[in-house]
Amino acid sequence: MMRHASDHELESNAQSAPESEPDAKWGDAVKAGYQIFPDVLLRWQHLLKLSPTDIVVIANLNQAWWYEDRLPYLQPQTIAKRMGVSERSVQRCLSRLRKRGLLRQVRERQNDGTVRYYHDLSSLRTQLERLARRDIRYNEALRVEDADS
Fold first, then answer.
1. Domain map of the chain by residue range?
2. N or C: fewer beta carbons within 10 Å in the chain?
3. Rounded Cα gap, residues 8 and 15, in angstroms
4. Architecture of domain 36-135 in CATH?
């Protein structure tokens, strides 16, 4: 018979366990890079009506978004190649995300005359922040921050 830890055991283990480090969890895989991806996006994807394809496309855009003030630039064909789907599938996904108001495309002409399309995820971020505030983990984190102040 499989034994399950009680809530008390889980709580005391969580308090005594050292903080997890990405390289301890993933080994050499993180040496090629890793990203910060909000848990709330996965927990609440059903409320945002996000498909598995939407999540993977967002993860790809997130991977290219290194700094808040620099929008990610990633071509649909690059995302499609990584995912093993058609470029058209990625274009449809991006279009759906834009129509839902979760993504905005920003067109910018480069010095050489070419045009780049950047992806603004700030609307998705706003939606995720609203959902996070409804999450019990968010309120617990605020209590810890207040206690530390």
1. 36-135
2. N
3. 11
4. Orthogonal Bundle (1.10)
